[in-house]
Structure formats: structure tokens, C-alpha cells
Amino acid sequence: MNSLLHLLQLTFRKVVPPPGALGLFCCIVLFSACHSASDSVNTPKKMAVIVSTLNNPWFVVLAESAAAEAKLLGYETKIFDSQNNTALEADHVENAIVSGFNAILLNPTDSDGSIVNVMKAKEAGLPVFCMDREVNASGAATAQILSDNYSGCVAIGEDFVKGLNKKGTYVEILGLVGDNNTWNRSKGFHSVVDRYPGLKMVAQQSADFDRNKAMDVLESMLQAHPDINAVFCGNDAMAMGAYQALVAAGKASDVGVYGFDGADDVMNSIRDRKIKATGMQSPQVMAQTAARYADAYIKGKRDFAQRVPVAVELVTQKNIADYLTLTRP
């Protein structure tokens, strides 16, 4: 019994701190907690801007507009280029998670393939706001700010029909087949044009929204169909590539080219009567809205509309003067 008491006394001496030590310990804990809280408050908030590609000037504007708006709102920003690769996009999302970003402003590379990347961020507690392109999953992204592509191309289709007097042959150059924008634009266009039996589409092919690919695609189409009357392109970069191909073939004055985006070079080409028309999107509005929504989320807001449409305006040779201030010389 005496041995047991002795053992208990030794144990008690080991675990009970000497006089004053308990107070010192409490002070250290409180200081550490306060210091940690102060670090949390002083740590700058950050937004990651992840875009499908920086090889297209339109997406450069989207990315830079998002970053600029986030900076105005007080956030540090970094732009990531996914190079139209969902695997690289996944690396960027992972980087944003582990690097302590507070939100992602995302221009997805693929409507289906990017879902897993958005879900990864969501599971990590990182909100994702999609810009211009969407993912095919409700509730994955916190909100998706998108151009009204379908309605914009309905307007282009109507102008296309008028321009060809309801008859003729044409080709269509599609964008990325994995992007919903590609099909929404095509469907909007065909919802009008297909009602006119005098208009016949003789070829349709993807050029991945790429200017050089579109030039190559149209060159091949012209070999099979040299007498086409018009080309409908799913974006302005491809419209410029198509126009280059027509110039090289000596057909630039015979074939009308229609685009979509409102890019500077096409706006200027409409002014110079080279391109017939385009649907002018507003990357600035989409990017700024995404940044503002992310800021609101970080500050506590949680109720966001899943899809936020942004209007598209038809720009033609008839009304280009109204938009000249939007183009660079």
C-alpha cells in the first residue's frame, strides 16, 4: 500500500504544474489563438481566374476583365490558362484549392468534362462561378453567367436569311463539339434558317473556335463546294479564318461571312464591309458579374440563380456606326 501511494505521489508531481505555470500556459494559448485569428483577418483574399484558353483574344478580355474587377473589389488574383485541356484545368483547380484561394472564376473547357473539376472545388468548400461557358450539372457551380447564345444566333439567322434573299447554299463552321455554346449557337441559327427550303447547308465541320483551323476547314470545303454563297461561323476567330480562306481563293466579295462574339477585328471588318454580321457578346459584363457574385459569396450571400443570361446584340454593316466606339482603331 505504501508503495502504491508513493507511485501516485510521483505521478501527481509530474502532471501538476509548478506554481504560476498554469497561468503562463493559459496566456500562451490565448496569445496563440489571438495571433491565429489576426493572421486569418490579415490574410489577403484571393480569386483564381481559370479560362479555357488564352490563345483567343476574346478569352483574354474575359480573363483580364474578371481579374481587374476582382482587384477593384480588394482581392488578389491569378489567371490560369487551361489550353482547352480538362486535365490541365484540373491541375489549376487543385492549385486553387491548396493555395488558399477563396473563389474560382471559371471559363470551363468542356461542358461535361469540366463537371468533375467544378465538383472537386465544391467539395473543398471553394465556390465556382462559371463565365460564358456552362457545365452540364445543376448545383455544381454556385452560379453560371452566360451569354444568351441561342437568342443571339436567332437574330443572326434572321439577318442571314435576308442577306441571301431566302435562297442559296452555305456551310457552317462549328466551335468545340464539347462546348454547349457551340450547339446553342447552331440551334439558334438553324431554328430560323431551316424554315427556308431555298437555303441549303452543303457542309458542316468543327474548327474548335480556332482561326487557323477555320481557314483550313473552309479551304477544304471550297474544294468540294466552290459556289457557296455564305459561311456561318460559331465565333469571330473562325469568321476571320474563313475570310482569309475566301481572300486566298479570290471569293471574298462573293461569299458572306457571319460570326459571333463581337471581337475587335470582326467589328472593324464589318465596318470595312468584309464581314456581314456578328452577335456581340459582353465578356466584360459576364466577368464583372462573376467577380461581384464571388465577392458577395465570400461576404456571406448564398442564394444565387443557377444561370444568369446576358443579352447578345446583333451587329451588321447597317448599324456598325452605333458600335464604332467599342472597337479599337
From TrEMBL:
The lineage of its organism: Bacteria, Pseudomonadati, Bacteroidota, Cytophagia, Cytophagales. Keywords: Signal. CDD domains: PBP1_TmRBP-like (cd19967). InterPro entries: Peripla_BP_I, SBP_2_dom. Belongs to the bacterial solute-binding protein 2 family. It is found in: Cell envelope. This is D-ribose ABC transporter substrate-binding protein. Pfam families: Peripla_BP_4. Residues 48-301 form the Periplasmic binding protein domain.
